[in-house]
Amino acid sequence: MAKMWQGRFSKDLDEKVNDFNSSISFDSRMYKEDISGSIIHSVMLGKKGIISEEDSRLIGKELSAIYDEIESGKLAFDPTAEDIHMFIESVLTERLGEVGKRLHTARSRNDQVALDLRMYLRGQIDVIVGLIKSLIKTLVEKAEENLETVMPGYTHLQRAQPITFAHHLMAYVEMFKRDMVRMFNCFSLMNECPLGSGALATTTYPIDREFTAKHLGFDNPTYNSLDGVSDRDYAIELASAISICMMHLSRLSEEIVLWSSWEFKFIELDDAYATGSSIMPQKKNPDICELIRGKTGRVQGNLTTLLTMMKGLPLAYNKDMQEDKEAIFDSVDTVKLCLSTIKPMLDTMTVNKENMKKAGEKGFINATDCADYLVKKGLAFRDAYKIVGTLVGICVEKDTTLDKLDIAEYKKICDVFEEDVYAAIDLNTCVKGRNVTGGPAPEAVKKHIDLIKNTVLKEEKQ
Predict the structure, then answer these.
(1) What CA–CA distance (Å, rounded) separates 335 from 339?
(2) Of these residues, 277, 278, 340, 448, which one is catalytic?
(3) The whole model's pTM is what?
(4) Is the Cβ–Cβ distance between 108 and 85 less than 8 Å?
(5) What is the Cα–Cα distance from 187 to 314, expressed in whole angstroms?
(6) Residue 277 annotated among the catalytic residues of the structure
(7) Cβ-count burial of 311 within 10 angstroms (0-12 exposed, 13-18 middle, 19+ buried)?
């Protein structure tokens, strides 16, 4: 395919250089955005009298036909084309001749590329937000089923205090809720239209940038042409938001790996979402979770790629910026894949409530509640803390737990203890007593769930 810019050159581009320079293998996914942008650009050119209304109409009609042919598979991408932008314009020119050549009036490939990428990523943000929302819905449903499921909460991976499985799952809901907010913020920041920035200095034609911005769904045109073509903050912002979301997915995956092990056995994955070993017939491996952990590093690497690519570039456009697409496209594809895979895995997993409860009965996770019992009887917390620490030491020596330690042993250390201490340190009592905003009490978690249902998961009225 002949290059649109070939007039200045006396030789054809070296074949290897052409391959090295070409981006159609990955930017062809933006054909819809390229065609949409070109149609609105041609409409604007016609309305402003820069080209004739008839030429504008013919260009729009043929671009729509090209789109339909790509969608149906009738028109295949030319692998020798430099990029999707040149491919579509070449096909248009082949079909319309001189009329097709008028499309690129008052436009550069620099602002065209910037437009297409913004439009494509806007659409992908909508998809990602939808997937996050779907995952939150699954987590909320699992939480509702486990409001009374007591389990140990951990710090330093050591059993710490009693919580519920619902409370634990809702912690991830908060993480993913923040991810949604970051996506919305990213959408807002990128929703300015660079079309009309030209190569770097706009154009002498009387174009209407407000028209093209409005009809392409942007809030406004970009207000500096140099920045319009050289800005990739929006791609970096999105890569960052995706990296944080993947970090959350990785943390959740790590816990599922732990919980599904024989050492915990808090949950069991459905057979459809686990794999076996090539040599050990007993194995049931949480490979999905392990892959998500691994892919998180890859996505974070893409963010580093984008930051490093941009850090030394002078204004305005530089060819280095072609490297933005593979990095951000990979991040987008990866987070979509991970979100769509982890949701059904969580939806189908079995929760072993008894194992969670048994784990909670060990590790003295009610020790703080035992100290609080003494404080409520009038002791200072630090004195109570020391007394209960002594009692824990006795339990360790006797290989027992606080709820099974004889009351006589309690009274040897502090005569404030009475029989009611056993009710005070019962795990269900400990959990239900933490009925404050953000706490693990079933009533508090239910309020949290209702809040999420009425905000994040609330369906918009049609």
Answers:
(1) 6
(2) 277
(3) 0.92
(4) no
(5) 26
(6) yes
(7) exposed
